[in-house]
Amino acid sequence: MAAAAPEEDESSAADLVLPLVVAGAVGALAGYAYLRRTRRARTRTTPGPAAHSPAPPPTGLDEDARALPAEADDWIRTSRAELGFVAARFGEEAVAPFTAAVRDAETELAAAFRMRQRYDEGVPADEASRRQVLAGIVGRCQEAGRRLDAAAPAFDQLRALEREAGAALQVAETRFRELAGRTAAAETTLTGLAERYPPSASAPVTGCAEQAKDRLVFATVHLNQARQATDRGEPEHAARDLRAAEAAVAQAAVFVAGIDRLAEGLDAATRLVPAALTGAEAALTQVRGLSTTGGVPAGELHARVRHADAVLTAVREEVAAGPYDPLDALRRIVEALTPLDAGRAGVASAAGALVARSSTDLADGFVETHRGAVGGEARERLARARRLLADDAYVAADTLAREARDLAEQDVRVYGNPLAGAAGHASGVAGAVLGGILLGGDGDEDGGVPASFGGPRTRARRGIA
């Protein structure tokens, strides 16, 4: 890989991105040291498929039906990220056909995920019908890929990277500079979270600032190389490096946004906890006057009320003692009220929505930035969480989103170190492979080809013979 440092007579644009190579390399190594620590420290806490589900047929069809949804999710996520850079340059109207292609692919994948859920639940039961479901999952994912592949040639005509790499570089460099400032601000935000809340509150974004720096180190190297290739008149090499840099900038933005969103969520939760406690007490007062609710016998109802009382008491004590995790406090309040059919309106509903959105966003951000390692089960859980969130089933959405995050973290631990040696980590290549930015494989010391807008036949087209 070419060195990131430009010669004195090279472009000022490259000089502007250079300082992060030195400062960010340290952060990159720290971020991946954190990642390895979490791989060792965490254990799986989520259940597998339901025990009563019929065993899947031992065929390649089942293997395809398990693997293709994750691959299709990658195609869509990559396409969506590159589309953002093109829209920034040409406008939303110019990219409307490609936006539609991505949405069509999303619709196909959503259907495949729903089919996978029913299949894992044992529906349908007979073997012939179950094989048809597996074939349907495969077909839906293939159609998602076909739609993206079909749009890729026109997408490349609009971008014209081989002819107009300079203009696209300006867009990427502008985003890079803006994001470098946001990353520094995010570090300050994390420091503030550590001062205001217990470690558990900010744990989901611990290491995110370091990993954002890691992606920016990688972007620095490839923006410089793209600029140099442009100056040398090597448009294919410029396009390849530019795509790698764009994807890294996009993932750095996800890391930073995750920190900002969690900080906003914790702040909103802090303001909401007192009202949630008051609303919960009022709901319990109403329930105590009932002999039954929702068909629950009186004895069971009274037991649920006692449990809810104990939860509210514990939350009040934690709030008084401080510091405490306000999102977790809201989660426990809502979970205590839900069995009493008392958490579907008013402040309890608002609390449930806040908690579920936060956990879903965190899970989605983790999958987005580690998609080179995350498999289909975590993504299917995340898809279910999104559907439940849209249906206002907040407790179930929150539970599934956290399960999706746990499963995704397990996948990362199993995936292990994508590159041996410190050089790949210091340059950000290891993170780029883990994040699905580079379509690396065994023996690809440079991480391989950068992924581009498109499906299975077109996403690796930036490879150079």
Summary keywords:
single chain; about 475 residues; mainly alpha; 2 domains; two-stranded antiparallel ribbon; globular; disordered N terminus; membrane; transmembrane helix; transmembrane
Describe this structure in words.
Residues 41-64, 446-465 are annotated as: Disordered. Residues 44-53 have a biased composition (Low complexity). Keywords: Membrane, Transmembrane, Transmembrane helix. The chain crosses the membrane at residues 16-35. The chain has 16 helices and 2 strands. It has helices at 12-17, 19-41, 60-90, 96-120, 127-159, 161-196, 199-202, 208-232, 235-288, 298-321, 326-337, 346-369, 376-390, 394-415, 422-426, 429-434; strands at 438-439, 449-450. The protein has a two-stranded antiparallel ribbon. The chain is globular and about 80 Å long. Mean pLDDT is 86; it is low at 1-58.
Question: In brief, what are we looking at here?
Answer:
The chain has a two-stranded antiparallel sheet. It has 16 helices and two strands.
What is the topology?
Layout: H1 12-17, H2 19-41, H3 60-90, H4 96-120, H5 127-159, H6 161-196, H7 199-202, H8 208-232, H9 235-288, H10 298-321, H11 326-337, H12 346-369, H13 376-390, H14 394-415, H15 422-426, H16 429-434, E1 438-439, E2 449-450
Antiparallel strand pairs: 1-2
Helix pairs in contact: 2-8, 2-14, 3-4, 3-5, 3-6, 3-9, 3-13, 4-5, 4-13, 6-8, 6-9, 8-9, 9-10, 9-11, 9-12, 10-11, 11-12, 12-13, 12-14, 13-14
